[in-house]
Design brief:
homodimer; 573 residues; mainly alpha; 25 helices; 8 strands
């Protein structure tokens, strides 16, 4: 059992048959074709030499196949993680230097080790603290930054900056250096890729291909572009006309890499590695969940941490960059019919063959081509409509999105996520610190009590029924006290206060002290304090203390029973 | 009205009469006598010259009397704030240097301005995020550190350190330098003060004094000690025997001080000033609340921010140190019969007279005497039993106390509070991220539904009733999904899932997306999703979205109605 949990591959390997082999192989071929330009492009986006993108697409895929629980997730370099890698490595070294490359490798290693540790400690739930609006805002803002950062390759100029403003200023300043030949290749490539997205598949259908095959074939668009522009660069001597090319890519499989161990470097990169791990994990798990649900399968988030951790460690020791499960590639893998992670292993074999045989051909590949593939890919991530949807829903969700997008664009990706997470947690705490406390009355003819301001209900001037719509804990303990005292001041005939605790899921020590204070204060004013509908776990806690002995009133199972007993006070009961 | 809110003194000044004047004057005399050694001692604790303690006990008291809302709070230097001042100033300058003194003044100014700003923005509620266990743990640990830090004055040696470990090591290393005469004074002073606390009042009562007057007289113990040891130092030439004396204290009232404006220094001290503000505010407000409640008065926390802010600014511009409302001094003020903040003004006059006339007499005051008053005062703050009380209550409250005490002792005061606050918030979030989700059934003969594991209830195999004991928000949205799917897997006959939302005080966008996902998944499995007892504010939100249109089932006012309608499904209804 333990072996099967740690190596989910045992499960599917046992049942593996010829039919599965064929499905997986077909999917692997399609994903490999898609992955060649992507791995080169994302390495470029991260400021790394192209071979590091290829290396990150070999061993990590094998590691994920052994440890991951998603059947169809395609692991490798992805846009957002590459952007984070560039931001982190750029803080400790100059792009293009050996130190910069080593920083990326160390990031992969640290991130892998952190993911493994989180997996062992079953901390997958930590990712839940990234609220959906924060993720959506971050992906959108990252997409914008990535797209703008690649414009320089389309124009053939130098322009750098970690945030949108710096990037735009830098682009503007260098606009005069734009290279016409590069622009022809770059703009042409972007236009071609957009056309492939929208126009190619329908065209192929019209020529008689079935829609699914046409959709698949359209995925080969980027590779076709790579081939055509590479040939053009070779035959037309584009380099002589100032078009930047990928240049020499070492041939062969990656060597075993031993990442630098330096406490200083590790310390500097630890925060970024953690961020990168969590973001990569969240992105990967949400893709994994979506795809698994379509085939009634499930993924195990804590085991996914192990799978992604192993992938990143594998990437680091084979000279690669940080990786995670990518959305578009996984969808293609799924649609192409992958049924097991073996498809990932076959993809790894495909990329290994490319590294062994085809790297000399990459010499003439224009950088503008890669930039175009990145731009077209990330623009599909940009979803500014999330701002409107969040605005329509609630102010706090809107602020979470807006802060995340704003800070990411203005101050950079790392601060963007951090501020988004802190803002969403802060707003949640703020809301729970000022809980809704409703005065309730009985809905006539039922045993139910509802807000006096929203419903026609029956109340008794001697009884104040309060429903506290929040767990009672340190942040709102004083607020409860204040509200109760405020409500008392308006009621002269009062004899009983009943706190209806249906929504009180917790009472911590601070809140207990406040309840004691309320009880004392009410008793001094000749008013009894009662509780109703206290939940089991909360009641267990109260029983450990002497609060129930001090309590001037009673604890009732239902609010109805409480009101019945107390309103009949003077009479029979 | 606005004037009366900003200057609460207008209220009591109008009604001020002779009787109040007498009461306030008596209280002021007693507090002044108590404050003389305390102000000198806390200045020493903060590493500052003694006159700064006196200066901090003049203008700040007048400022608080004008702006504060507590009738009896005694503002001035206090132990914990002095310790925080030492920790913060020690980070930017060497103790004893002019820069160190200026750092303390800037701390008072920054802290005053922050408190004023928080008051204007009505941010008093921020203090609620300091949970009671964190405060209790912090005060206890600070008390221990302060007491141990003063042992060097009792022994007449040099020993420094910001945390308990460093302090103990340093004390141990210098133990050989201990000065016998100093030890006689110091140990004698500590013993005397302990005896004053426990033995003097009963003795005075036996001599015929009434218990209250005896208690009051005992408060003069420290001043008696100051007089006796000063005389001893003068007559016996204790300085010649190696006893450290306070030395020359400038005579006269403080000059107007203009605190340094340096962005760098302000930036370095801003974090500490914030911490100091919040801690001081919390300490002061809790004293204020307690005393006000005893006389059926109230304090306004947001106006208290203004009062304490003004006090600290006043302290800074008169060359003083950070101040706040102190516990023991306020209790003495209250017990001595102070009825209005005029008592504070009279105390300020008293201290001003001391500064004008008596400072030459302080030359021969042994530092060991001051150390003894500090040790005896802070040991009463140490309450290690809080660990046991929190342990008996809940693991999270215990961890909050233990982390605060542990980190404060081991890593210092600032990190101690920070870790305590972060730990308590983190644990609260962790708990809400894994909410209690109960399967409920009908309590026979009632309309109430309770946990099937705790009560004898009626259930229907076609209906799954789930009570979610938490607001649904980003941190627990995925958890809810997982739990629902898990529960589904065990039930084959299921036709309806009803979420009882009594405890759901919020549904944010992330949670709404999860509910949409649950709804879709259930519909695909032929199961309807219903909601019951959705609260008004939550329902308002849902109505803004298209969730209710997508919902496969209904929303019921009460869970009873839901079950009645759905279990009658196949029959009549």
């Amino acid at each position: 059992m333990a072996v099967r949990e740690l190596f989910p591959c045992v499960e599917w390997l046992r049942q593996y048959d010829r039919k599965m082999l064929i499905s997986d192989t077909i999917a692997a071929v399609i994903v490999t074709i898609m992955l060649i330009p992507q791995s080169l492009a994302y390495a470029m986006l991260a400021g790394l030499p192209p071979e590091m993108g290829l290396y990150a697409s070999i061993l990590p895929l094998v590691a994920y196949a052994a440890f991951g629980t998603s059947r169809t997730l395609a692991v490798g370099p992805v846009a957002v993680v590459s952007l984070l890698t560039a931001a982190a490595a750029g803080k400790v070294a100059q792009q293009g230097s050996p130190e910069y490359m080593m920083a990326a490798i160390v990031l992969a290693l640290l991130s892998g080790m952190m993911l493994l540790l989180m997996g062992v400690l079953r901390l997958g739930m930590l990712a839940n603290f990234l609220a959906h609006p924060v993720i959506a805002g971050f992906i959108t803002a990252s997409g914008i930054i990535i797209a703008v950062s690649q414009v320089r390759h389309i124009l053939g100029i130098e322009a750098h900056g970690e945030n949108l403003f710096d990037l735009l200023v830098s682009l503007y300043q260098h606009l005069g250096d734009a290279n016409i030949s590069t622009m022809v290749v770059g703009v042409g490539a972007v236009a071609f890729l957009f056309w492939v997205r929208s126009g190619l598949a329908p065209l192929l259908v019209r020529t008689g291909l079935n829609p699914e095959a046409a959709g698949m074939a359209a995925k080969a668009g980027p590779v076709l572009l790579v081939i055509v522009t590479t040939l053009a660069a070779y035959t037309l001597d584009l380099k002589g006309q100032g078009v930047a090319l990928v240049g020499a890519v070492p041939r062969g499989l990656p060597d075993l890499t031993i990442p630098t161990f330096s406490l200083e470097l590790w310390g500097e990169l630890a925060g970024s590695a953690l961020l990168l791990s969590v973001i990569g994990f969240v992105e990967s798990v949400s893709v994994g969940h979506t795809l698994a649900a379509k085939r009634r399968q499930r993924i195990a988030p804590n085991q996914e941490l192990i799978g992604l951790g192993a992938s990143n460690v594998a990437s680091a020791i084979s000279g690669g960059m940080p990786v995670t499960g990518g959305f578009s590639r996984s969808v293609v893998n799924f649609d192409a019919g992958a049924v097991t992670p073996a498809a990932g292993v076959f993809t790894a074999v495909g990329i290994a063959l490319v590294a062994l045989l085809l790297t000399p051909l990459l010499f003439f590949l224009p950088k503008a081509t890669l930039a175009a593939t990145i731009i077209v890919a990330v623009l599909s991530l940009v979803d500014l409509a999330i701002l409107k949807r969040a605005w329509n829903y609630s102010l706090s969700d809107f602020l979470a999105v807006a802060i995340t997008i704003g800070v990411t664009l203005i101050l950079g990706v790392e601060l963007g996520v951090l501020c988004g997470v802190l803002a969403s947690i802060g707003m949640h705490l703020y809301k729970t610190a000022k809980p809704h406390i409703a005065v309730v009355g009985q809905v006539p003819g039922t045993e139910h009590f509802r807000n006096v301001n929203r419903h026609e209900v029956i109340t008794d001037p001697r009884i104040l029924s309060l429903r506290v719509d929040e767990s009672l804990y340190f942040a709102n303990a004083n607020y409860l006290e204040d509200r109760v005292y405020e409500l008392l001041a308006q009621r002269r005939e009062l004899e009983h206060v009943i706190l209806q605790c249906t929504a009180v899921n917790e009472i911590d020590m601070s809140a207990l002290e406040s309840l004691e204070a309320i009880n004392t204060r009410l008793r001094e004013a000749g008013i009894q304090l009662h509780l109703s509908e206290v939940k089991g776990p909360v009641m267990d806690l109260l029983k450990c203390t002497d609060f129930l002995e001090h309590l001037s009133g009673e604890v009732y199972l239902s609010h109805y029973q409480a009101v019945k007993a107390l309103s009949g006070d003077g009479e029979t009961c």
